[in-house]
Amino acid sequence: MKRIVLTGGGTAGHVTPCIAMLPALKKEGYDIHYIGSYKGIERKLIKEYDIPYYGISSGKLRRYLDLKNFTDPFKVLKGYFEAYKILKKIKPDILFSKGGFVTVPVVLAAKRCKIPIIIHESDMTPGLANKIAIPAAQKVCVNFPETMNHIPQKKAVLTGTPIRKELFSGNKIKGLDFCGFTANKPVILVIGGSSGSKVINDVIRGMLPTLLRDFQVVHLCGKGNLDPKLDNLEGYAQFEYIKKELSDLFAAANLVISRAGANAICEILALKIPNILIPLSLKASRGDQILNAESFESQGYSYVIKEEDLSVSSLMEAIQTVINNKHSYIEAMKKSKLNDSIDVIMNLIKETQL
Ligand SMILES: CC(=O)N[C@H]1[C@@H](OP(=O)(O)OP(=O)(O)OC[C@H]2O[C@@H](n3ccc(=O)[nH]c3=O)[C@H](O)[C@@H]2O)O[C@H](CO)[C@@H](O)[C@@H]1O
């Protein structure tokens, strides 16, 4: 029996692609193990699936000055020795790393143990963690064709991003029921990224009185961002984070308003739901979401609002435009050559493992 270790964490976008791979790996009879941080979101998300989880110490690697820059390297070093010990014990035939800071010590320890490594990069340009990890990897899967230029040629493979199969079999009625909505008004699904977005939350909540006249709104607002004052508002449902029911919410949605995290936008594209993207600004990130959103906008899949331009009126205008032109957005999305990346990645795993 072949054994695989998956790793990825920090935000859900570094975990859901690993979750998407689980059914195919199980079907092929893999013995699957997961290494993540002690307390990260990956621990909670992976707990739902029946696979052994190993926590390691994890520290953030920053490009900016912060007092934690003095303590975090020790946490990463500790994580390295912990990962090394775990890998020596499990002896996997391959490591699949989805990125995020926790994966750096795991990848480096796997290299030391001579375990083949496949990395997946969802964004247009590699994040810092993957940049450090790529030299140790045999293969690097990428989501966007543009990313191929940022990875050594012999390692880069254009695969697309693994999307959880269950997202394609959502049930609209179940989604409406889950939110307490009727079938008579269209539904807007708001996804502020896996950790929520305060800026988006504030604008959405500020425009609820107008919005709820014509729409029902289901709002995935992120941990700690629920507003109890809005609990009983008719036509509005808020959740910190949704797991299994996400497929039903997608099925119920006529329009999605989302951050431009690589996984969320690929899911929206695969499901062909008219959408408005509000990428995380350059102030708060390296700008990867801006590139993701620009790529989608130029292909006619999405209406994009820059965070600096986000206001009640710009969002209202965007909603009207997308609703009025929904067919042209859907037609453009139908032309996308999105791969079934799960099969491609499975083949790559089989070719690369020991
Ligand atoms: C702030 C930050 O660092 N953001 C990055 C992070 O975003 P983030 O983790 O938000 O990533 P994505 O949008 O890519 O993925 C979020 C995932 O969580 C799922 N989901 C979300 C909400 C919810 O309630 N339930 C649920 O299942 C989505 O369906 C999706 O699969 O990783 C992405 C992929 O590397 C990057 O593009 C983003 O720039």
Automatic annotation (TrEMBL):
Keywords: Cell cycle, Cell division, Cell membrane, Cell shape, Cell wall biogenesis/degradation, Glycosyltransferase, Membrane, Peptidoglycan synthesis, Transferase. It holds the Pfam family Glyco_tran_28_C. Its main location: membrane. It catalyses: di-trans,octa-cis-undecaprenyl diphospho-N-acetyl-alpha-D-muramoyl-L-alanyl-D-glutamyl-meso-2,6-diaminopimeloyl-D-alanyl-D-alanine + UDP-N-acetyl-alpha-D-glucosamine = di-trans,octa-cis-undecaprenyl diphospho-[N-acetyl-alpha-D-glucosaminyl-(1->4)]-N-acetyl-alpha-D-muramoyl-L-alanyl-D-glutamyl-meso-2,6-diaminopimeloyl-D-alanyl-D-alanine + UDP + H(+). Pathway: Cell wall biogenesis; peptidoglycan biosynthesis. Its EC number is 2.4.1.227. It is a peripheral membrane protein. Residues 4-141 form the Glycosyltransferase family 28 N-terminal domain. One of its GO terms (molecular function) is undecaprenyldiphospho-muramoylpentapeptide beta-N-acetylglucosaminyltransferase activity. It is an enzyme of class 2 (transferase). One of its GO terms (cellular component) is plasma membrane. It comes from the Bacteria. GO terms for biological process: carbohydrate metabolic process; cell division; cell wall organization; peptidoglycan biosynthetic process; regulation of cell shape. Gene3D superfamilies: Glycogen Phosphorylase B. It is found in: Cell membrane. UDP-N-acetyl-alpha-D-glucosamine binds at residues 11-13, 164, 194, 289. Residues 187-343 form the Glycosyl transferase family 28 C-terminal domain. The keyword Cell wall biogenesis/degradation applies. Belongs to the glycosyltransferase 28 family. MurG subfamily. Cell wall formation. Catalyzes the transfer of a GlcNAc subunit on undecaprenyl-pyrophosphoryl-MurNAc-pentapeptide (lipid intermediate I) to form undecaprenyl-pyrophosphoryl-MurNAc-(pentapeptide)GlcNAc (lipid intermediate II). NCBIfam families: murG, PRK12446.1. This is UDP-N-acetylglucosamine--N-acetylmuramyl-(pentapeptide) pyrophosphoryl-undecaprenol N-acetylglucosamine transferase.
